[in-house]
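Homework help board

Subject: predicted structure for assignment chain

Our instructor gave us this sequence and asked us to write out the predicted structure in token form, then describe one feature. I got the tokens but I'm not sure how to describe them. Can anyone check?
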Amino acid sequence: MSSRPIEILAISGSLRAASTNTELLRACIQLSTEDVRVRIYEGLASLPHFNADLDTEAPPPAVAQWRKQIAKADALLIASPEYARGVPGTLKNALDWLAGSTDVVAKPVALLNGSPRATHAQESLAVILRTISANPISEQPYLAPVLGKSLRADDIAHDPALGKVLRTALDDLARAANKAT
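My token output:
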């Protein structure tokens, strides 16, 4: 590991208060170590709709903050549901705001999937991330099937199978971030 901790910015594609995707990311925080820190991005709902006219050197404050957090992170961890066979609009909007910046270029990204049925969104996310020059570290998302189980972060982190998937994702992401630096 490097001399400083790897900083992972976790992004949930769901705005729901009881989101299983957000719970997966909260479990990752519980499983983080001194060498790998996970922090959840909380501003997805506050980003304005993407408008290229506003994508200037002085973008809206929420966008500037979003890009700053992306730039500061060593890697990204995205857990997203699938809506209508695609990426939720709020997450797609956030990624659109990164298309015109260099903050995400070559940034290692891991995708967490909480449902084995949510394949279309995961495939679309990988395409979007490659298009904006991010670096998805795996062709397949890390599958931690929690859909319909009503599990909280503690339950997920302490479940042997689910915890193993999350630890593997964090370890792989940390290795990719170390290689990128």
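Reply (TA_rk): Your tokens look well-formed. For the description, you could write something like this. The radius of gyration is 15 Å. That's the kind of observation they're looking for.
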